[in-house]
Amino acid sequence: MHIIADSGSTKTEWLVVNDNGQLMKTIYSRGFNPYYQPAHEITSILFEELLPYLDERPEYIVYYGAGCSTSYNCSLIRTSFQSVFGLIDIQVFTDLMAAAHALLGKNEGVACILGTGSNSCLYDGKTIIQNVRSLGYMLGDEGSGTFIGKKLLTQWLYGNLPQHLSEAFEERYKLTPSDALDRVYRTGRPGKFLADFAPFVKDNIHNEYCYQLVASSFDAFIEVQLERYAPLRRVKLAFVGSIAFHFSTILKARCELRNIQITSIQQNLGKGLIDFHLP
Question: Which residues pair with 23 in a beta bridge?
Fold first, then answer.
């Protein structure tokens, strides 16, 4: 038995697969990011939210995760796993490589993530050959749940939301401006806090204000990320993530305005990763 894991900052999907490539079970846990969480916190999640649901020790683990872009962070992830499972084989890749492997397989193309955060890459069928740097929720993450939530919260704090939206927002979240600022600047994981406002936008997407908020967020992603890839309009273009999936109609429309065709949009990568590793 072995495990293929797809982890973002919000949640992790653990695919438990047998030697024949059959999915035995799927386990969900909190996500983690080595940029924001120390090894002991990651280890705690593994002990509490993964280990109790496994019937046996895995032979090896393939882990794709947010924040695994440096050798130090990859080492921190391996150390955390080995403290729980012992000296087993652990392969660590970036979440962007997960998107490339699952969405494009061995084909050339552009793979994009639009979930809590955002990222993209140009993939040649084997390796990532170009990546527009992702600047995280403070400076970048265009088109992501965090970006959309930040725009919504900012406009509410400025008093710029239409009255009916402002009232609905306050009724749903029970926030005061002071509460919101404390959550952003004085507590952990502000990116997750901001992304939690994206479902409100989805539930009110029929409202022109919310529609334009999402449309402008995707325009920013296209301008900052997609347009940097020269082969964009002649290779496959695929997306994964909750934001891409739930706002797919708007995403397709904004791309089509620029003569960009999307090949596929997936909510998650599970099946694609299993197919890639166990064809």
Answer: 17
Residues facing residue 11 across a β-bridge: 30
**d(C-alpha 24, C-alpha 3), whole Å:** 10
DSSP per-residue codes, 97-115: HHHHHHHHTTS-EEEEEES
Give the Cβ contact number of residue 43 at 10 Å: 17
The model's pTM? 0.83
Domain 2-97+271-277 fold: Nucleotidyltransferase; domain 5 (3.30.420)
Beta strands at 264-266 and 23-30: parallel, antiparallel or unpaired: unpaired
DSSP for residue 132: P
Of 198, 262, 196, 205, the C-alpha closest to 235 is: 262
Query: Residue 112: which of 139, 65, 144 has the closest Cα?
Result: 144
Sorted by where each begins, the domain ranges of the chain are: 2-97+271-277
Tokens representing residue 224 in the block: 């900052």
Render the burial of 23-39: b for 16+ CB within 10 Å, e for the rest. Answer: eeeebebbbbbbebbee
% residues pLDDT > 90 (the chain): 62
Residue 192 has a CB neighbour count (10 Å cut-off) of 20
**Residue 34 · residue 77 · CB < 8 Å:** yes
Size of the chain in residues: 279
* Dist. CA 126–CA 105, nearest whole Å: 8
191 and 117 Cβ atoms separated by less than 8 Å: yes
The model's pLDDT over 24-78, given as tens digits with 9 standing for 90+, comes to: 999 999 888 888 788 888 899 999 999 999 988 888 899 998 888 888 899 888 9
Q: How far, in Å, CA of 215 to CA of 28, rounded?
A: 31
